[in-house]
Amino acid sequence: MVYKKVRLKTKSSPVKQPDTDSARQSEKKIIEEGFLRGAFRGFRNRTTFFEFREGGRWRQDEDQYLYHYFNKAYAYIYQENDAYYLHVEGMDMCIKVVATPPRKKVSTGRKKNSET
Questions:
Q1: What pLDDT does 115 receive?
Q2: What is the pLDDT of residue 14?
Q3: Contact status, residue 35 vs residue 53, Cβ threshold 8 Å
Q4: pLDDT on residue 104
Q5: Does residue 81 sit within a domain?
Q6: How many CA atoms lie within 13 A of 39 on its CB side?
Q7: Is 114 within the bounds of a domain?
Q8: pLDDT-flagged residues of the chain (< 50)
Q9: CA 44, 45, 47, 48: dihedral to nearest 10 degrees?
């Protein structure tokens, strides 16, 4: 995008140049990206978890509700200042998230039968 310098007729305030996409993009640091495990059903509340197929697990950290269904949703986590945000491709909204430890496998209590 090209901006032209404009002279103001008054001396009251200088012209503020709008932020460029490249300047905003440089502030974002991609932490994790890939497909989400299972179907994506939007943002709900602080108990909503998002798990990447590669194993990263994140919890929604703000109360925002927006329903949208995606099967095989592609998403990425980026860091901006000291916060992490989830962006799902195809949605206009990003949501603040926090990292959580991976889920532990739950034992079914059954013993495996071994052939002797």
A1: 60
A2: 44
A3: yes
A4: 75
A5: yes
A6: 6
A7: no
A8: 1-18, 22-23
A9: 30
Are 48 and 59 spatial neighbours (Cβ–Cβ below 8 Å)?
yes
Given a contact cutoff of 8 angstroms between Cβ atoms, the answer to whether 84 and 99 are in contact is yes
Specify the pLDDT at position 6: 41
Cβ neighbours of residue 28 closer than 8 Å, sequence gap 6 or more? 78, 79, 80
Residue 62 belongs to what domain range?
29-96
User: Is there a domain that residue 20 lies in?
Assistant: no
pLDDT confidence of residue 28: 82
**Number of structural domains, the chain?**
1
> Is 45 in contact with 65 (CB distance < 8 Å)?
yes
Two structure tokens written together for 12:
């009251």
Give the 3-state DSSP-derived string for 27-93, with helices as H, strands as E and coil as C.
HCEEEEEEEECCCECCECCCCCEEEECCCCEEEECCCCCECCCECCCEEEEEEECCEEEEEECCCCC
Read out DSSP for 91-102? -S-EEEEEEEPP
This prediction has a pTM of 0.65
Look at the block and give the residue holding tokens 């001396």.
11
